[in-house]
Model the fold of this input.
Amino acid sequence: TSGEQMFFENDILMPGESARAYIKLLAPEYYPKSLSVGKEINMNSGGRVIGKVTILELYNEILLGGS
Done:
């Protein structure tokens, strides 16, 4: 799904860098119970994987519950 990302320390990341970010999904209702703290997911741009995301916190209870 599409979403908005906001980095806490940097505006952009270069290959190999990491940062903490807030990511807001535009349509979380399509992914109920699909995420959990500690889960690692791909970050894509179009059809290309551009990075990995490790979930540290979840604020939307609709998403909470995935393994």
